[in-house]
Amino acid sequence: MPDCVFCKIVEGTIPSHKVYETEFTLVILDINPANPGHCLVIPKKHFETIYDADNTYLEDAIITCKIIAARLKEKLDAEGVNIIQNNEQAAGQLVKHMYFHVIPRYKDDKVVIGYNKKEATEADLRDMAEKLSIATVPKEEAEETTEKSEEEPKTDIEFVEDVPDEEESEEKLRKWAFEEEY
Ligand SMILES: [Zn+2]
Asked: In this predicted model, what pLDDT tens digit does every residue of 28-38 receive, in sequence order?
């Protein structure tokens, strides 16, 4: 096991203020909170980044983030919650053990979590979407899809709009269209 502060916290060899735990996840208070109640959601197994995180641990961690977010709203009257996950030094990762910050937020709390927005043209966005587009379905999903399509015959998906009854007057229809727009 690497010399990792979070692994030691999970083991209990370094003390922490535990808030919650599951089979896969530990939640502790951040000792330098952005706001009081700032929690760290830590998988109980060592993964350096999200790239190599086991999906079972990752799923449990994100569901735990949801539970903690609700708790911060309930107990601390948080008006909002940030969930942040950083990978590698360039992205601001401080501890080399994959984790999530869950931070209660309030209007005008002066907490700064941000970036400067850059301009992107329509062409930039189109090219980037093409470059990043993932054409192949991940193996597990592909297997699921194959299983499903064996069970049920493949049909075209129909998108049915919520259209008013034919009996309704033209005026009503116009009103409906108007409301849709706004
Ligand atoms: Zn670790």
From this structure: 999 999 999 99
